[in-house]
Amino acid sequence: MHWNAEGVMNKKTELEHIWHERSINVCCIQETHLQMGKTFKVRGYQCFRQDRADRRKGGVLTLVRNNIQACETAVHMEGAEYQMIRAKLNDTELQILNFYCPNDHPLSLDTIEVPDSSFLAVGDFNSHSQSWGYSQMDRRGEEVEDWQDEHHLILI
């Protein structure tokens, strides 16, 4: 599951119901608005969380079911915010990029180490392209499409 929360704390109870009812294994959340030093836990899930230190908004959070082996392998919180999670279930290993970038910050896509296979990138890139439903493409949309093409990624 992928979701731009625009604040997660006041929606936690409803979200927990959805996660458990739908048996969500991994949930990538952007714009959590969580503050450092405040606890956010979800029963049955590992919480990989990165809060923005310099202002109240932003932040990314990846929740992974406890029965899935997972670890955070990369974090970037300067301008664009992202975390890379490696998750392994049985014999399948997947690298998951949880990405958020405010529209007034550079995308910093060149800082992401994209693996050759088993990679899923989700997030809010604040970009426009006809490829994902907008009537026009903007500069950021071009940048995301170029990044996608360069790394042979498929848009779903």
TrEMBL record:
A UniProt-annotated Pfam family: Exo_endo_phos_2
Domain Endonuclease/exonuclease/phosphatase: 95-155
Gene Ontology MF annotations: catalytic activity
Domain of life according to the entry: Eukaryota
Coiled coil: none
PANTHER family per record: ENDO/EXONUCLEASE/PHOSPHATASE DOMAIN-CONTAINING PROTEIN, ENDONUCLEASE_EXONUCLEASE_PHOSPHATASE DOMAIN-CONTAINING PROTEIN
Protein name: Endonuclease/exonuclease/phosphatase domain-containing protein
